[in-house]
Design goal:
single chain; mainly beta; 6-stranded antiparallel barrel; 6-stranded mixed sheet; 14 strands
């Protein structure tokens, strides 16, 4: 399972990086919490004098960054057109419509470039967005309900699912040994507990 593009909810990005793991970013059924936007890039700073800025790409779909495509600048309602895109070291140099000088873009540092949630790329079978997972009932393979998945955390190695319930906060690594099945239609996730994950059950 993975998570393809950074989920955007309440103006807070739950991750700055698109990572892959068991789960795949571009995150329930039970108490589904759908986000309105997904972040696909983070503005690092201005470049040159003519409105270009450096972007850290945080989507597994870099093809979103192509001249003529439209992205939404964090804090704005309407999309802007990508006027130019070119690679520079580990970043992209991007120029958006309506931004033509360095002073136009210097204040954008740290903001995100977004797409609407309904524009999310389709994922292969077995891969999910974080807002599809948040709210799922988490049940062990022995039938014990641990609670609800409330957050997907990115650790740099693999995703970690934060579950809140009668056993308190449980942190489940998103690895194949633990995550057995995800049933979005039923609003449930089935897991196998490795030693130490829920000490109260040992």
């Amino acid at each position: 399972y993975e998570i393809k593009e950074c989920d955007w909810s309440s103006d807070v990005c739950s991750s700055d990086l698109a990572t892959s793991g068991l789960l795949d970013p571009e995150v329930s059924m039970g108490s589904a919490k759908r986000v309105s936007h997904l972040a696909v890039g983070r503005i690092v700073g201005a470049h040159g004098l003519h409105g270009e800025f450096k972007v850290d790409v945080i989507t597994d779909f870099p093809e979103r960054f192509r001249p003529g495509a439209e992205l939404i600048l964090e804090g704005e309602a309407e999309p802007r057109r990508l006027e130019s895109v070119r690679r520079h070291k580990n970043f992209l140099l991007v120029r958006l419509s309506g931004l033509s000088t360095r002073s136009d873009v210097e204040q954008l540092r740290g903001l995100h470039l977004l797409v609407r949630r309904q524009e999310a790329m389709p994922l292969p079978e077995g891969e999910y967005y974080a807002d599809e997972l948040e709210g799922l009932a988490v049940i062990t393979d022995t039938g014990i309900e641990l609670g609800s998945l409330v957050e997907v955390m990115w650790t740099g190695v693999n995703e970690v699912y934060v579950v809140q319930g009668s056993f308190g906060e449980v942190l489940l690594p998103a690895i194949a040994e633990v995550i057995q099945e995800v049933d979005l239609e039923a609003g449930r996730m089935f897991v196998h507990l490795l030693p130490g994950l829920v000490p109260k059950l040992e």
